[in-house]
Amino acid sequence: MAPMAQLVSLLGARVSGSDRNWDRGLTLPVFDALTEAGVELKPQDGAGVEPGLDALVYSTAVEGTNPEMQRAEALGIARIRRGSFLAQLARERRSIAIAGTSGKSTVTAMVAHILVEAGLEPSFLGGGAAVELAGAVPPGGLRAGSSEWFVVETDESDGSVAEFAPAIAVLTNLTRDHKEVEVINGYFARLLEQTRERAVIHVGDQALAAVPRPDRLALLAVAVEGETTWTRPEFVARSIRRTPRDVRFELAGAPVTVPFPGMLTVQNAALAVVAAHAAGVPLDEAGRALARFAGVKRRLERIGAAERIDVFDDFAHNPVKIGMAVEALRPKGALWIYYQPHGYGPTRFFKDDLIATFRSALTPRDRLLLAPIYDAGGTADRSIRSEDIAEPLTRAGLHARVIASRAEAAAEIATGARAGDRIVVMGARDDTLPSFARSVLAAIAARSGEPAATRAQR
User: How many CB atoms lie within 10 A of CB 44?
Assistant: First the structure.
């Protein structure tokens, strides 16, 4: 919502907005960025919804009982969900719409980075903030470019992905997330039906084979070497080399280097290079650009290191994302995971899959510390607990337990972690998780009294 508000303000509208964390008195960098962009922050009590307002744009995380939603309804003010509003803005430009249930934020930022490096001056709106994107408005989730190109992340959780009509559509993968696969399949089919020029699709993802594609739509099929594909791919990532710090591969003869680990990075980078190629960037130029890609905040973001222990902050919150993050971060030593389930409904939806993912991904030397489920307020059914995930894992012989206090969690990690271990803070929705990751790093550094190495020093 924050970059959306910034974008509309930059386009010349008068914008105000509210946030529960602002009402709680939290001081977050995003609030400073909003104020600098001309967005007026108001309490979330309904008073900010005034007669004459053109529209109330809202996140689907906001319930109908919210006082602002109710006041807008009483005043007859149009209520437009965030994804629908973004789709309207994208229709006015030559957009590249990124869709999929994993990797969207990274691919969106990668494509924007390549286009910026190529001098195409795109606009950009992502679900995550790019760490270093030339011309981006702080904290990095938005860039207002001067060209017709608009690189945008879509959202399948509310179905608004089906409202986009882009020049180029990118499908990264399709898994059970927010909704069942069959429902998301229909959304993606509608997106492709409305795509005007080309579709870039990861054909190594078998679920995407079932998504109908109009015959008129040109398909750029992308795969990773060794994958079983449902159609012959034109672009295959080959000669893959992986280290704990980066990945390297070749794509149609063009060398690609990305300074982040994991097979998901390979998939994301291949899709981004081909999407940029569809927009007119030569493959070798796109591949070279990704060597300077600085990543997305909270997507395998390396916060720093102390005593040869790396600390990461990651948005992973569903089983697929968690499994991919563990694969990418797997250390020589132990992996310490602090995971905060991001809501009662999602935790109930994914409970069995979360248990299965942790059971297969963790080793007996790893440590999983589960926070209580994040409570965003509202009328959610709170009958599920983090213990419902931890207890089956403990019975399976893994180290998993619920830890109520962040201070206790930081102390346990700082005491137990050893050189060669890796620590990752995982979870979505809660804007205070990044600061907790930094407090864990500080606690480790305090053991020896030496300053922690920051991400910029990696």
Answer: 18
- Structure tokens that stand for 175 in this block: 């898994």
Q: Does 193 have pLDDT greater than 50?
A: yes
Q: Provide the pLDDT confidence category of residue 182 given band limits of 50, 70 and 90.
A: very high
Contact 414, 407 (CB under 8 A): no
Instruction: Please name the helix (run of DSSP H) or strand (run of DSSP E) that holds residue 193, with its range, or none.
Output: helix 181-194
Cα–Cα separations (whole angstroms), residue 256 to 96, 241, 260, 271, 274: 21, 10, 12, 12, 12
CATH of the domain at 134: 3.40.1190.10
To which residue do tokens 């494509």 refer?
A: 111
3-state class (DSSP) for residue 373? coil
| CA distance linking residue 152 with residue 149, whole number of Å | 10
Q: Mark whether 239 and 342 lie in a shared domain.
A: no
Q: Which domain holds residue 322?
A: 301-457
Assess whether 66 and 189 both reside in one domain: no
Residue 88 is assigned to a structural domain of this protein: no
- Tell me how far apart the alpha carbons of residues 299 and 249 are, in angstroms, rounded to a whole number: 21
Are 363 and 405 within one domain?
yes
Q: Could you report the per-residue pLDDT of 206-236, keeping only the tens digit for each?
A: 999 999 999 999 999 999 999 999 999 999 9
So what's the pLDDT on residue 458?
Answer: 36
User: Looking at the structure, do residues 181 and 53 belong to the same domain, yes or no?
Assistant: no
Contact by Cβ (8 Å): 190, 183: no
Single out the residue of 356, 434, 433, 439 nearest to residue 398, CA to CA.
356
Other CB atoms closer than 10 Å to residue 29's CB: what's the count? 13
Structural tokens at position 426: 């995982």
Environment class of 12 (CB within 10 Å of its CB; exposed 0-12, middle 13-18, buried 19+): exposed
Position 456 confidence tier, pLDDT thresholds 50, 70, 90: very low
- C-alpha 328/C-alpha 300 separation (Å) is 8
- Number of residues that this document lists for the chain: 458
**pTM recorded for the entire structure:** 0.90
Contact 343, 373 (CB under 8 A): yes
DSSP 162: G
* Distance, CA of 69 to chain centre: 27
Q: What does R_g of the chain's alpha carbons equal in angstroms? A: 22
Residue at 165 is within a domain: yes
